[in-house]
Design a protein that fits this description.
Arc Repressor Mutant, subunit A, D-Maltodextrin-Binding Protein, domain 2, two-stranded antiparallel sheet, 10 helices, 11 strands, 22% strand
Length: 288
C-alpha cells in the first residue's frame, strides 16, 4: 500500500470534498481522485460515494478513515520525537489559542521572544475552537478547559477573570435602561455568556457578534455593556467597569502539549514563554 494514497484519503475524509482536499494538499482535483482510487484498488474496498459537490464515506470508508487518523497521530508524535532527538538549533513551534489570548497576550510578547531565541520560529493560530493536537493542528495549545486525554501534558498557567464594561457615558444611564452586547446565541454554552444572560433581567441585547474584539469595539461607541476578560477590559481606557450583583465567573487557563515536546529544548522555551505571559496578564491565586 502506498502511504501517500492513505494520506490523501484521510485529508479527503476530513474535508468532505475533492476540491477542499486538493486545496489543502496543494495539488489539483484529479490528483486527489487518482490517489483515492488507487487506495480503493489496493484495498479492494469502495471507500467513497462521490456526489456533485461533496464526497461522503461508505461504511468501509469510515472504518479505514478512523484507522488512518490513528496512524496520523502516531506519525505526528514520531515527528515530535525526532525533533526532540535532533541536534539542530532551529525549530518551528505551532501555538494555538483563542483569538483574544493570541492577539492581546501572546502576540505582543513575540518580538522579545524571537530576539532572545533566534533559532525558534513561532507559528500562532488564534482560533475560537480547540485545535486538535492529536491531529497535528498545533504543537502547544492554550485553552480555557482542561483536556480529558490522558496522553496530553497539562499545566494550569493562569486564571481568566471577567467583568462587565461599557463606555463612560453609561455612568449616567440608570441600570434598568442598560443595553447589552453579546455573543451570537450558538455560543450560549460559554461560561461568560451564561453569566451575561443572568444579568439581563429583561433588558435587551442590541448587538451580537461571534468575535470578542468586535464586541469590544461596539461597546466603545456606547452601544451597550459587554462582558470582557479583565485583561482586555481593564486595559481599555475607552471603557469603565460596571458593578454587578452577581459575581463574575473565572476560568482556569491551561497549557496543553504532548510529552515528547518536553524533551525538545525549543518547545520548553516556548512553554515557559507562554506560562510567563499568561501568568502576568491573568494571574491565578495558585498555579499548579
Amino acid at each position: 500500500m502506498d502511504w501517500q494514497d492513505l494520506r490523501f484519503f484521510l485529508v479527503l475524509a476530513r474535508r468532505g470534498s475533492m476540491s477542499a482536499a486538493a486545496k489543502e494538499l496543494k495539488v489539483d482535483h484529479a490528483t486527489v481522485s487518482r490517489r483515492v482510487a488507487s487506495l480503493e484498488t489496493t484495498l479492494g474496498l469502495r471507500l467513497t460515494e462521490r456526489l456533485p459537490r461533496r464526497t461522503t464515506l461508505t461504511e468501509h470508508g469510515l472504518i479505514i478513515a478512523a484507522m488512518a487518523e490513528d496512524m496520523d497521530r502516531i506519525a505526528d508524535r514520531v515527528r515530535l520525537q525526532a525533533q526532540a532527538l535532533s541536534d539542530t538549533p532551529t525549530a518551528v513551534i505551532r501555538i494555538s489559542a483563542s483569538p483574544a489570548v493570541a492577539a492581546r497576550i501572546i502576540a505582543p510578547g513575540v518580538c522579545d521572544f524571537t530576539r532572545d531565541n533566534p533559532g525558534v520560529t513561532l507559528s500562532l493560530s488564534g482560533v475560537p475552537h480547540h485545535a486538535l493536537l492529536e491531529k497535528g493542528e498545533a504543537d502547544i495549545a492554550v485553552r480555557l478547559t482542561r483536556p480529558e486525554n490522558p496522553d496530553l501534558v497539562t499545566m494550569r498557567i493562569g486564571t481568566m477573570r471577567f467583568g462587565l464594561y461599557a463606555a463612560e457615558s453609561f455612568s449616567t444611564i440608570p441600570p434598568h435602561r442598560w443595553t447589552f452586547i453579546a455573543y451570537e446565541q450558538q455560543h450560549d454554552y460559554l461560561t461568560q455568556q451564561q453569566w451575561l444572560n443572568t444579568l439581563l433581567a429583561g433588558r435587551p441585547v442590541v448587538f451580537r457578534a461571534s468575535d470578542l474584539m468586535a464586541q469590544q469595539q461596539a461597546a466603545r461607541t456606547g452601544l451597550g455593556a459587554v462582558v470582557l476578560p479583565s485583561f482586555m477590559g481593564d486595559a481599555d481606557r475607552s471603557l469603565i467597569p460596571l458593578a454587578t450583583d452577581i459575581p463574575a465567573p473565572v476560568r482556569d487557563i491551561w497549557l496543553v502539549t504532548y510529552p515528547e515536546l518536553k524533551r525538545l529544548p525549543a518547545a520548553v522555551k516556548v512553554m515557559n514563554f507562554l506560562a510567563q505571559l499568561v501568568g502576568q496578564s491573568c494571574p491565578g491565586d495558585r498555579i499548579l
